[in-house]
Model the fold of this input.
Amino acid sequence: MFQINENYQKLPGSYLFSAIAKKVAAYSEKNPDKPLIRLGIGDVTQPIAPAIIEAMHKAVDEMGQAETFHGYAPDLGYAFLRKAIVENDYKARGCEISEDEIFVSDGAKSDSANIQELFSADSKIAVCDPVYPVYVDSNVMAGRTGTYNPDTERWSNVIYMPCTAENHFVPEFPEETPDLIYLCLPNNPTGTTLTKAQLKEWVDYANRVGAVIIYDGAYEAYISQEDVAHSIYECDGAKTCAIELKSFSKNAGFTGVRLGYTVVLLVMSGIREVLGAGTFNGAEVFPAEYAAGMMALPVGGFLTLGVLIALMQWAQTKVKGGK
Ligand SMILES: Cc1ncc(COP(=O)(O)O)c(C=O)c1O
Done:
């Protein structure tokens, strides 16, 4: 007999944005003459740029011809896109990210909801308060949170980092040590951001306590200050503690198209080298005939991430004196 995932049933009401949409629709119906300033889901206001439309038309035509038709895309996304991301979003900013560390997806919303599946069920999450609801709701559904208190609008077993006018909307290191830290910068909904020096402090903190930062850079295109990093990988040490999520929704008006990507730890490449080639830094670790051939393929990236997480958790257990 099937059973419903009881964690779903813990979610109060509905997803925040659909609740707002329903309220707005009801209000507009009753008050058709009243203008509305919408402060709900952030959508784009401009049409997609002509160069993109032209490319999309060409892509549709390709799908209509037997010679150029193609089915599923490669697991990590098309190589031309990953190459362009590496060149323009990373190399141009001095970040050494390789193409096989980019995972193209249908947007940062899906990635920010799905990424938690890579971590153990007892991982403790830390989020800013207020927060983009997807981070919390996905962890609720995965069973990492306790119960919801409608009065405080907070979940038990979640570390909240208040962002208020008093602290200039800048989160402070929590007293309790988290396993996963969600940071969204520039921030939705507060609009604040951190300087590169402030962000580096978070990177150092995460490395110190053995946490992973899930860094949502969906609003990166809005950065105009020189001292604000466009990627967390601009901070030394981020390669050992950060996963970065990016979106084309805001910078290319792609909310309806659905395109984004995730960048996973650079340190992966070292582990991948060991798993795939049997070498580390060029030196042989185990005979190449045992090396998993699939590590040379894109799917190896995901497997490597799994191995990396397992290693980190093992190391943390040792540090905490567990078995
Ligand atoms: C913080 C944050 N992350 C991610 C997203 C969604 O990005 P995408 O459209 O790529 O799914 C949004 C959209 O509003 C957002 O505010």
